[in-house]
Amino acid sequence: MIQRPTEADIATLADGLGMTLPQASGAEILAIIDAHLSGFDTVMAQPDPDWPVAAYDRSAPMRPEPADNPHNAWAWRMVVQGAATGPLQGCTVALKDTILLAGAPMSNGSKLFDGHVADMDATVVTRMLDAGATILGKAQCEDFCVSGGSHTSAFGPVHNPRRLGYSAGGSSSGSGALVASGAVDMAIGGDQGGSIRIPAAYCGINGMKPSWGLVPYTGAASIETSLDHLGPMTRTVAENARLLTVIAGDDGADPRQCNFGGGDYTALLEAGVQGLRIGVLTEGFDWPEMDERVRNSVLAGIGRLQAFGAIVEPVSVPLHKDGRAFTAPVEIEGLFGQIFQANGVGAQGRGPYSPAFMAAQAGWRQNADALHDLVKIAVLAGAYMTRLDQGRSYARAHALRARLAAAYNAALAQHDVLVMPTLPMIAQPLPPPDASLALSFQRSSEMVCNTAQFDLTGHPALSTPCGLVDGLPVGLMIVGRMFDEANIYRAAAALERSAHWTDC
């Protein structure tokens, strides 16, 4: 039975809420509260629900030895062998350590979750296992995913396989490094501001942030419901399209979804780009952070598509520049509200919710100093703005989201895809352990120029490698119409065929 409040409890709560209690006796107030809470008693007296767990054998999870983890990209090793047949048969997969895998710890890059073991499988886990994949473990990620660099995990920095001591990108840092190093064939990353595409660009792999709501987020740690995306990270375009085909489609549980059934995203891989209309987003090249060598590498990649018959022309979306900032109220206030006030899940969806995860998340109040300093500052900023303007900035940002989406849609009405650099720079050195807070913040945010806008609007966006600068990869980002991932893959596959990116 749920513990009932006392009159003193109610008086304290009312005072904290700035509320005068009704003119009634304490006994009357408590009796009405008791009537409300009787339903809670009934709910908690029921047998535990059957949490979704795929019926496949799984080994015991273990932390890898340093010798077996040269880039510090693995968080946990655990083998789960999927179905004997299926489109992913023979493929090995890593999961970003924000994704629930029953029986495995889930850290979210933070020591706040020490001791937490998942009690359910995310929808994407079940779908991959049913398709024949073999899961090899959980990939490191950044502390609460609040970094585009790979230096904020509570378990140490993740190194770029292309050059040790350099950032692998974040926040899906381990996912990018494991795929790029060949440790796995595929990985699932998460993206709220660029966190699939940043490591894809830094590490030289393909990373797709699908249309918002295409891939069910059920069973993954959130930052903000309206920004959350899960997506595939692979070495080749075809593998990426194949994995998206498996994981896409409504699961009947995720409130982000709208009964969209997915499709065959491999269908246009061999179609070529003859006649494909490609808009080169001029604002995507116009950043103070832009490395001219990156600009030239991306333009050379676009030129190869033009040589294959694509119709290439410049297009301008002036609001793209301000769109970089439009995400801030949604991400910062959403982070504070959804994670640090609503125990990581909010209260608007139908679930399933994981009580074990919610309990672990709620523990931050007793262990806030376990958070990385940059996470602490983000939480403070969110708490301050939530108190200061009671959601006005958040609401305004979402109104601007619609305006920004309309601007991209207008450009995409004239072009099949838009292209630009994924990032304005190549991978940067990891900050040293004694780095100043200012340098740590710089390395976590300096690359987020072109990525976050499409988390806010929900448009699908793929980073695909197009060349090398100083021996480090350059990513070209291809953006499409909502739920038109197939045309993005069409362009990316043609670019992949035009030349091997390491030769460019």
Automatic annotation (TrEMBL):
Documented EC number(s): 3.5.1.4
A Pfam cross-reference name: Amidase
UniProt KW DNA repair keyword: no
Enzyme class: hydrolase
Amidase domain span: 82-487
Gene Ontology molecular-function annotations: amidase activity
Record-linked PROSITE patterns: AMIDASES (PS00571)
Keyword Hydrolase: yes
InterPro entries: Amidase, Amidase_CS, Amidase_dom, AS_sf
Gene3D superfamilies: Amidase signature (AS) domain
Top-level division of the source organism's lineage: Bacteria
Keywords recorded for this protein, A-Z: Hydrolase
The protein's name in its UniProt record: Amidase
